[in-house]
Each structure stands twice: as structure tokens, then as C-alpha cells.
């Protein structure tokens, strides 16, 4: 069973547009039905689990790409301790953003 991990999630500032596709990709934020148009690089810091930090790409729509600190992240440990990455993103919640 995966364990929830308390970690800080920091935007690195690196972004890339999501390529157009016949199968549009949805925004990562829980409950959002908008199409994602940018991938954002985030670094997860938790000195016990990932001492050097761990980088992930997350997809957001226009609205949630501007949400910043109102996003709440839920990470869990990957069961295989030798795996990379060591954390998996379960959900991203937006607090105080209108969609």
C-alpha cells in the first residue's frame, strides 16, 4: 500500500506547450474538465524520502496554470523503494479558483 507523503511542491519555471492531439489531455487538477495546454515542471522536496528533490511534469489548463499557491498536492510513495521516481502524484486540488 502506498503511503501519503508530506512534501513541498515548487514550480521550477520551466514550461512546454502540450502538442495538439486527436485525444486531448485533461488538466491534472481534480474535477477540472478543461483541456491541458501547458506542462509545468515541479520539484518535490521531502528530505526523508527524496533528499535531492525529485522533478515531475504536470499538465494544467489556462485557469489552473495561474493558480500557484492555491494548489494543494497529494503525493504518495512508490512501493518499490529502488524505483525512480520515488513519489507518484495522486491528485492536485485547487483552492479558491473558479473554473
Q: How would you sum up this structure, described in words?
A:
This protein is mainly β. Helix content is 4%, strand content 47%. The protein has a 3-stranded antiparallel β-sheet, with no helix packed on it. It has a 3-stranded antiparallel β-sheet with strand order 2-3-4. Strand 3 (38-46) and strand 4 (50-60) form a beta hairpin.
Which strand order do you get reading across the main beta sheet? 1-5-6
Instruction: Give the H and E element order.
Output: EEEEHEE
Radius of gyration: 14 Å
Strand residues, percent: over 45%
What structural category arises from helix and sheet content? mainly beta
Indicate the mean pLDDT. 84
Low-confidence parts: none
Any key phrases for this structure?
99 residues; mainly beta; three-stranded antiparallel beta sheet
Short characterization:
With 99 residues, the chain is mainly β. Helix content is 4%, strand content 47%.
Protein topology:
Blueprint: E1 4-5, E2 8-17, E3 38-46, E4 50-60, H1 62-65, E5 71-77, E6 87-94
